[in-house]
Prior knowledge:
Elements: H1 2-18, E1 21-24, E2 26-27, E3 31-35, E4 45-51, E5 59-65, E6 74-76, E7 79-82, E8 100-106, E9 111-120, E10 124-127, E11 138-139, E12 141-146, E13 149-151, E14 155-159
Amino acid sequence: MKMRRLFIVVITAMLLTACCYEVDCEQENLNFGLVSFTPSDIDTIIFRKYKANSNFQSLEDTMKITNINVLTPSISGDTVLFITSNYSNVNIKFQLRAGNDYEIFIPGTLKLTRITDIIEQKTRRKNCDISDGNKTCYNPIIGFKVEGQTKSGEVFFIHK
């Protein structure tokens, strides 16, 4: 009887682990903050997405925001922080991710900021049961350049 139970436990464990598989994690978004801009300065923001390493010559997409509240910014002192990470409640079409270069243009001040060389660490996770299928993982951003200066982390700031 004990042997039968042990056999069932072993077979069940083998079946469960045999069903495990690895999944690629999703791309994370780069977040940004605007420092010392007035509300009228940032009443319009234009995002441009370019093919990576095209020296900003190969435009792929453009998005014009005329109401920053659709981005659900977080305001603290003189800083407006835009969190577009996958884990936030923001769902916008334009996201700063590895694989492209970007421009953020603020017409109110003629401020143009270029973001290049976003590097993410490709990661995978083990998916072993049905409930794991709903869990999502993200590739961390390990580096990027803003106006040619190397940065790290998942957020950068544009100063007026």
